[in-house]
Amino acid sequence: MLALLLRRLLQAVPLLLGVIVLNFTLIQMVPGTFLDVMTAEQQVTDQAMIDRLRVTYGVDQPPAIQLAKYIGSVAKLDLGYSYRHNLPVIDVLWAHLPATLLLMFAALLIAVLVGSAAGIVSALKVNTWWDTAVSVFAVLCFAAPSFWLGIMLIILFCVKLGWFPVGGMVTIGLDGGWWTQVMDILHHLFLPALTLGLFYSANYARVMRASMLEVSRMDHVRTAHAKGLKHSAVVLRHMARNAMLPVVTLFGLQLGAVLGGSIVVEAVFSWPGIGGVLFDSVMSRNYPVVLGILVLSSVVVILANILIDLLYARLDPRIKAH
Amino acid sequence: MSTSGLSRRQFNFRSISGVALAASGGWALPSFAQTATPKRGGTLVATWGGLEPQALFVPGGGGSSPFQTSTKILERLLKLDEKLEFQPVLAETITPSADFKQYTITLRKGVKWHDGADFDAKDVVYNFLQHWKPISAGIALKALSKVAAPDSHTVVLTFDQPTPEFFLKSILAGQYQLVVPRHLYEGKDLLTNPLNNTPVGTGPWKYGQWVRGSHVLYARNASYWSANRPYLDKLIIRWWGDPASRAAALETGELSVAYSNPVPARDIDRLVKTGKVVVDTRGYENSAWTVTAEFNQRREHVKRKEVRQALLHAINRQFIVDTIYFGRGKPAISPIFSSNKQFYTDDVPRYAFDPKKAGALLDAAGLPLKDGKRFSVNVVAAAWFEENAKLGQYIKQALEDVGVEVKLDSVDRATALKRIYGDYDYDIAISNFTAPLELVPTVTQFFTTDGIVKGAAFRNATGYSSKDMDALVSQLMTETNPKARQKLAADFAKLASTDVPIVPLVEMESFTLAGKKVRNVTRGANVQGESLDDAWIDS
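The joint structure predicted for all components is written out below.
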């Protein structure tokens, strides 16, 4: 276990370096710099002022030096300074991280629960109308663009029915104890998490269904039935647990992408997450923030992989033996 | 969400008499024009058609978003009201000397900064010398040579040359000339001061809390210099990333007022029909938007005046307004817009849509059709507004109809800024600008030789340089007789429309959407930057 952890952490160093160098190069190759955007926004026309800004933001140095300086500062856990937010990058990320994590975990939870349940149902009732209904549901959720689904949910639940707020994460200026605050956040969280969760759940439903069908033909399932176990016990303990492995793999993949957030859903529901920051930063060539988010994302990928490895071992003891 | 720093808007105008032409859309005039006794209390939630600002106050500008957030806390010396007249804010009077080389500013007494310190002449001197002249209004205040404070509430400005009163007042009431506290800024870098995220000002609203990605909350300044104001208890500026959810929030009442084209033009009628929302096109006189075609003077063919004039005859501006802007705008005829009652003139050369004439003029210019084409141009459309990309496609079609081959590049914001204003890598560029009533320097520097600054956006990127134009603009800068100035402005419009290095094609219409009960939210000549001290909510 410890060896696995150490190996993974060691692997992380070249990965992080690769992420930084690759993305830095890509950003350098994109036409237009944040200085162009900044001088345009601030209507700076004075050459002296432009030169002063170049020095202030360190872009008067050649790219190789900028890269070396950046790697040096990341090694010291300093992700640089975002001119656009007038804050250190780490503070910008910190401000948006909780919202993104909350939304993504809620969405993944909905996805795994709804998707797995749907997959199990459709595998048990294979080739019946249940199965067809689940397939149609999965295709619809997967094919419907999330901005469309989001807006439709807003129109139905917020504008017509008035059950949920249109956007944001909290009611501004709400007074009350922690319970009120928590309920308020959940109230705001429901629709965006549902939109995103339904989109992801389609994948889980399909994977779970295929996996369940495969497992159901295995010897140990027949044995379990033969020794007289109740159907529900066979399904939950013998089939579902074994069928979970591909679902866990999928979960791991999505967990790694959790920081990227969902730009679209965040925009539709004005969710104050990291996706919007990333989008804005790319558009304004604000590379310290883009790099910062990518570096942080690769850290999350590494952590998610370790977590998934541990989960595999828990679900299937044979994996640990190897 | 294609734009952030540049505002997402289209345009507005009033006729010279001040009657809102926009009512032609079939909307009733907004009820917030009514005068009733303002009520105290309540919370107003405002937004605009763009995203969160980079900082609540960005020295030198930063676009419409920080303009909206900063002007609630920080104030200017003057404001331009809805009748397009200057009103005192922090300055009570601004009086020129007989030769217009000296101005005496009397400041309002008894004004306090939000931290309790007194506001006085030293603050204003600091802003002139450290903020406005070096950062936010360098070109406009070039001739300012001395700023003195003879007593605690008087400031005397000395200029190298005569300075027109309307010009100076326009600069002081302009978007970027906010008064920041000297005692908190002096000796620190203005641009990167962390205080820019939590500004301290003299305005009706104090900084409360800024939740990144969501909203900024303002608290009422109970000791504001204007008694009883602000009328509201709380002000919130909140950002919705998506126009459709912005529209939904207006419908549910979660959003009270949204400036600068918060929803696509085609959605306005639907929202107004719900009976919960009213539309208003007033209040954008001092920030009128246009979409322009710029002709690069460094490139063959388009550097010739007769070729440019011919190409303009191939473009149908009314078609652009009707199709691309859904009728929310009108064809522009010169760099001085019809909403500018100070300087507007219609006595300028015009280029009616006439492809035959365009062809004939190109023939006469020695560019006849050969194998179905005359020459090729590279059109760069700055796609920060989706309309610009559509306009690029239209221009391609229109020019190809007269035998000019077009290579069209629709590029994103940063690429467009670099290609048009940095590398000058285009033949014809589709871009935008927003202009206040005063022509100098915002409008004139698209035409003057000193407006050519490589890398500086929204300046003379065409490389156009004319002795007559430079002379005209320097007269405009120093002519102090208002009538004579209007005459010079008319000459400027004529020359600009004759040489056509950069041509405004459409005067875009800007609009505000507001809840039915909201009052006094569209007063002023540039409403997104009004302090909302007199806004209130009717029961």
